[in-house]
Each structure stands twice: as structure tokens, then as C-alpha cells.
Design brief:
Layout (H helix, E strand, L loop, with lengths): L1 H8 L4 H13 L3 H14 L4 H14 L3 H14 L7 H10 L3 H14 L3 H22 L3 H18 L2 H13 L3 H11 L6 H9 L3 H13 L3 H16 L3 H5 L11
Helix pairs in contact: 1-2, 2-3, 2-4, 3-4, 4-5, 4-6, 5-6, 6-7, 7-8, 8-9, 9-10, 10-11, 11-13, 12-14, 13-14
Amino acid sequence: DLAMKGVEVDPRSPINRTQLGRLFELKGLYGLAEQQFQKSLELEPNFAIGHGELAQLYTSRLGRYDLAYPHALKAIELNPYLIQARFPLRQIFMDLCFFDKANELVEQMSTLDDQRESAAMLAEEERGRVDLYAALKAKNWAGALESARSLFRLYSEWKWIDSQLEMASWMTDLGDAQLARDAYLSIEPGWLDPNQWEDLLEADQWADGCQIGGVLHATGDAELGEQLIDATIASRENRQPWENEHAGWESALNCY
């Protein structure tokens, strides 16, 4: 892998360390990702990107807002134009119900982008996310579901696959399993074919396998859904021990 190779060639490069950390994070290996981001800061304490990556990891993956907040502030202090450092702050403000502050950050992020079209896209997406969380915090489930549906349509238009999957997961949790099923299968119809599961799960989609198995179970394909969940767990158990050791809070057993 190029990220691994980069660290082998130049282990003292903070950029190479963050690239490897991102790879581990994508694979669900959050402990290893944290180690690489921390290493980047040991090499260069004022490396804004390293602070931003740690803030994002602590916020979105590990739920450690106490650790995320100072890193996000430091990243912005070092580089006020680092948009991704503002995402963790937005998430923290939303979860604390400071929606006015969250919206202020949305407007700041949109003005920092030097491309007008992408700035407008960013602002539209972030406003939708603030609306979703505001509805969730108010226990306005119908409003939250509508926000998730709107964001899914937005991500479908932009072809942002990971974000589509995220909104499909929200739609499942908010009680619209049929729409979530349609969403998942529009992205990858292969989930209906057991012969394709091995390839899909090997592509580090085991978490999606859990979610989709549950959706299939809830929408008339109970047996197929259970089979997919079992296949997902088996795929997870076949990982190397070091991968499971550093897989963070996620576990295939959460399928059940």
C-alpha cells in the first residue's frame, strides 16, 4: 500500500503519518489511526492537519469530545483556512444543542472555500446536517427523517456514496426501513446476491453488511438478512488478530 510505503521511505514525515492514519481510520482501525496522527504531532507539534485529523477521529469515531475540542481549536489557530478542522467543532456544538453556533460555523466554512460552487454545496449540506441534529435533539422524529431523506437526495445527486450510506443508516434508525433498503440497493444491488458478499465484505464494508442485513430482515427478506449478518460476522472474525485488536469500539457482534 502507498501509505505504508510512504512511512517506510520517510518515517519522519508528518504528512506520511497522517496518510497512514487516514488509511487505518477507513479500515476501522481507530487505535492505529490515533497512533499515527499522534506521531505526526510528535514529529511536528504545529502541524495543523495532524491536529485536525485527531479532532475528527475523536469526534466522529470515538465520541471523545473532550479530546477533540482542543485539537480542533489548535488546528484552526494554526491554519484558519483548514475547513476540515471546523467539522468536529460543528459536531460538538450540535450535540450540545448550540445550533446557533453550529450554523455560524457553517457560514464560516462556506466563505473559506475559494470555489463558489463547492462553497454553496458545502453550506447546503451543513445546514441540512444541523437541521437533522436539531430535530433529533428535539425528538422530532418526523422532522429528522425528512432531513435524512433530503440529505440522501442531495448526496445521490452529487454521487457521494459514503454520505448516501450514512443517511440510509439514519433512515433505518428513524423507522423507514423500506426507503433505506431502496437506498442501499440503489448504491450496490449485489447485497441481494450471496455470491457477491465475500467480495463486498472484503472491501471493508462489513459495517454496511450488518446494517443492510438488518434492513433486509425488516423488509420481507428475513432469511437472506440473517444469512448476510452471519456472513458479515464470519468475515470480521477472519481478520488478522492485530486488526481486531485496534478496531476501536466497533465489533461485528453489534450486528445482533
